From TrEMBL:
This is ABC transporter ATP-binding protein. It is found in: Cell membrane. It comes from the Bacteria. Keywords: Antibiotic resistance, ATP-binding, Nucleotide-binding, Transport. One of its GO terms (biological process) is response to antibiotic. Pfam families: ABC_tran. It is a peripheral membrane protein. Its main location: membrane. The lineage of its organism: Bacteria, Bacillati, Actinomycetota, Actinomycetes, Kitasatosporales. SMART domains: AAA. It comes from Streptomyces olivochromogenes.
C-alpha cells in the first residue's frame, strides 16, 4: 500500500467505488484520497451521492464494486479494525430513545470496550462541553433536533476515533449549538484527528474546512485544499455553482403564476 504525503496512510482511500439502486446510479466509480489530520468537507447538490458515499466508506452500505480503506484498513475485509477507529454521525440518526442522554453514552462507551470509570469521566466532560449536562437525565425521545445531534456527536466521539464522519451535522441546529459543535470539532482536528463531513452550506464548509471534495451526479468533480478548489472565484459558493453548472440559472422565472395574491 502506498503511503500518504506525510508518511502515514491517508484517512480514507476510495478506489473505483460504484453503487446503483436499480436504474439509478448513485455513485459512479469514484477514486478519492482524503488526507489525514484535515477538516474535510464533502459538498454537492441534492442527490449527488454524498450520503451513499459516506455510507459505503463507513461500512454501512456494501458497494457494488470498488474498495475503501480507512487509515490503512480495508472496510469490508477488516470491519472491526475500521469501526474501532471511526466515529459516525449518520443522516437520520437512530438513537436508543428510551435511554437518557447519560445512559446512552454509558451504553455506547461499554459497547466500545472502554472501562466504566473512563466512560463515566468522558461522559461527564462531553455532556458539559456540549451543553447537555442539564438534560443528561432526560430521555432521548424528548430531546430536540439540535440536542439529538449533540448527543449523537458525543456518542461518536466517546472512544476518541481517528476519523469522524458526519452527515449534515449542522442541519436543524441553532447558531449557539452550532458554535458549540464547531468548537468541539476544531479542538478535535487540532489534535491531529480527521473530520469528514457532508454539507450543502458553503459558508460553513468554507469557514471550517481546509480540504474539500465536490461531488456532482455520482462523481467527484473537484477535490483538494480549499484554496485550490475555490481557485479565482470570490467564494466557495461561487466556485461550487460554476462546478455544478448552475451559475445564472433562474428556474423561478417559469413560475409566472406565483405571488401577487390574486387567484388565477
Ligand atoms: N436506498 C435507495 N434506494 C433508491 N435510490 C436511492 C437510495 N439511496 C439513494 N438513492 C438515490 O441515489 C442518489 C444519491 O442519493 P444520496 O442520498 O447519496 O445523495 P446526497 O448527495 O446525499 O443528497 P442530499 O444532499 O439530498 O442528501 C439519489 O438519486 C437518490 O435518489
Amino acid at each position: 500500500m502506498a503511503e500518504g504525503a506525510g508518511g502515514s496512510a491517508p484517512a480514507v482511500r476510495v478506489q473505483g467505488l460504484w453503487k446503483r439502486f436499480g436504474e439509478q446510479v448513485a455513485v459512479a466509480g469514484i477514486d478519492l484520497e482524503l488526507p489525514a489530520g484535515r477538516f474535510i468537507g464533502l459538498v454537492g447538490p441534492n442527490g449527488a451521492g454524498k450520503t451513499t458515499t459516506l455510507s459505503m466508506v463507513t461500512g454501512l452500505l456494501r458497494p457494488d464494486q470498488g474498495g475503501v480503506e480507512v487509515v490503512g484498513h480495508d472496510v469490508w475485509r477488516d470491519p472491526a479494525a475500521v469501526k474501532a477507529r471511526i466515529g459516525i454521525l449518520p443522516e437520520g440518526l437512530r438513537l436508543f430513545e428510551r435511554l437518557s442522554g447519560r445512559e446512552l453514552l454509558a451504553y455506547t462507551g461499554r459497547l466500545r470496550g472502554l472501562p466504566g470509570a473512563e466512560v463515566d469521566k468522558r461522559t461527564t466532560q462531553l455532556l458539559d462541553v456540549l451543553d447537555l449536562a442539564g438534560a443528561q437525565h432526560k430521555l432521548v425521545v424528548d430531546y430536540s433536533t439540535g440536542m439529538r445531534k449533540k448527543i449523537g456527536l458525543a456518542a461518536a466521539l466517546l472512544h476518541n476515533p481517528e476519523v469522524l464522519f458526519l452527515d449534515e451535522p449542522f442541519e436543524g441546529v441553532d447558531p449557539v449549538s452550532a458554535q458549540t459543535i464547531r468548537g468541539v470539532l476544531e479542538r478535535y482536528t487540532a489534535s491531529g484527528a480527521t473530520v469528514v463531513f457532508s454539507s450543502h452550506v458553503m459558508e460553513l464548509v468554507e469557514s471550517l474546512c481546509d480540504w474539500v471534495a465536490v461531488m456532482v451526479a455520482g462523481r467527484i468533480r473537484a477535490h483538494g485544499p480549499l484554496a485550490e478548489v475555490r481557485g479565482d472565484a470570490p467564494s466557495l459558493q461561487q466556485a461550487f455553482l460554476e462546478l455544478v453548472g448552475a451559475q445564472g440559472r433562474d428556474r423561478g422565472s417559469d413560475l409566472d403564476w406565483l405571488g401577487g395574491g390574486a387567484m388565477r
